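Researcher: Here's my situation. A collaborator sent me these components and asked whether they could plausibly form a single complex. I don't have experimental data yet, so a predicted model of the whole assembly would be a useful starting point for our discussion.
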Amino acid sequence: MATASQLLPENTFRNRFLLAWERIKTPVFYFLLFFWAILCLAPLYFTLVFSLKPVANAYTPPIWFPIPFTLDNFRTVLQSFDLFPRWILNSMIISLSVTLLRVLFCSMAGYAFARIEFRGKKFLFNALLISMMMPGIVTLIPKFLVIGPGFIKGGLHIGSLVLPTGFNLIDKLGGVVLPSFVDAFGVFMMTQYYKSFPKELEEAAIIDGTNRWGIFFRIVLPISQTQLLTLGLLTFQGEWNNFMLPLLILRSPQNFTLPIGLQWFRGEYYTLYSTVLAGSLFNTLPILILFFLFQRYFIQSIATTGSKEG
Amino acid sequence: MSKFNRNKALENLTGYLFISPWLFIFFTFILFSLGYALYLSFTRYNLLSPAQWWGLEGYKRVLTDSLFLDKALPNTFKYVLIVVPLQTVISLVLAFAMDQKLRLRRLFRTVFYLPSVTSSVVISLIFVWLFAAQGIFNQLLGLTVNWLNNVKTAFYIIMGMNIFTTSGTLMLIFLSGLQDIPESVYEAARIDGADSLQIFWYITIPMLRPIIFFVVTVGMIGCFQVFDQIYVMTSGGPLDSTTTITYLIYKWAFRDTTVKMGQASALAVILTLIILVVTLIQRRLIEGSGVSNQ
């Protein structure tokens, strides 16, 4: 008798709770997951429904289904406002050029930090790590001045020579590309990747007398495709959705990117909210397509950010 | 000997050529910009005439400005103190649920990440409409509140939206952390007679500590600088109830009719110091609490 009651768990509150928890935990977790999933889908679903209804019926029920159904809002976006296609094009130009440049330059720098022995490497790599933790807001104003009018108005006068101190790229797409074409996080990511990369392939090429450039462009770059794609997708997503810098740099409506344009359009044509949301879907769609095509890479890149730095 | 030296010089040169694009960005947009921001914070600068040395006057004006003291500063802390804990706990709970090897978890993972892929502007425009007086939210509940025009509700709508959009990404980070904990550790604990509550508290949480630190740090640095959503949804209003420090920096430097680049720079420096101090305190708290790990 005494031994049996010792083997049984004590009838304490804690044990009763644990027993009950074992029984209900699966339904509780399912409930949580479904609840959050509905929360995640609802805004996008309602947006889609709303943008598929005529402007006149925007605020009349039903809200659950697009009745009456129309594609007019999407047509308006592409045809009636010639600025919309322009914004899509601008966004494409900026995002693609930043992505291509960043993938190339970050992998070059990452390769150098991982493989090439040069003076001051450790110091510079530490500087890179520190710069990753620095809040971006502190450099915002100087960044704006360097891209645009320069930090000395009218340029730097050395004798009769006048040197500009800024790139004069306000209201130009290049002004958004300039500060973004390489970034610390990308360099860090590529460095970690190349450090874990087998050296044998390169060593064979070094013995053959191939120089660093040949090794990098002909051997290293082609085999790191997967990693380049991951960095490229992350970069494209970030630039496509970027808001603060384009907001400060791009001034005239024909030079806006899609996010800036949408925000501006909403202010100008408040009553056409169906069109605003249809335009929003044009901003969301390319990213969604990329996401579904390359989900594995997106998730991998997010998942590794934590474990690498933690 | 000379050949060796030449090789070494070549290797040095190649290294620097490989990192030169990054070096350019680092020197102009990080190092120089950081120094220049510091310099500007001690000046009076309106873009029209050259920056004038102003000493500590800019800082003094920031620290006596009622918009900063009564609105931006408390609002920013309120935002961080509400959003960071909630998004961390929610994403941890979701990751824990995802780690139970339930059915459909791939589908859930995709769906949870959707709000994070959508741009901040688009999600803000959608929420402006959802919470408008005639919006879906009111229609569903039969209310007529103008959520974003109300001093009492506007800021909470923005907070809720940001918790909602970031939790998906943070969940993925936690999930990979949970999956990195070796099964053998759990088994050993079970053999020693630990129950599920003890396993969660004495194994899972301590093993996740570095990831929790990462998520909280990144979350805080982001929350202290919240801008896009505020710009799009409320522009700091109504009655400055959603004005945060970053929005105030933007307002002083780029929006107000009298441009105050110097004063805005002083505020940016102050914000950076706040972030630095809070991060260090937070690191102490997370590293110093409970069973130490590593």
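Model: Some features of this prediction you could bring to your collaborator: Chain B touches chain A through 98 residues (CB under 8 Å). Residues 150 and 238 of chain B are 7 Å apart (CA to CA).
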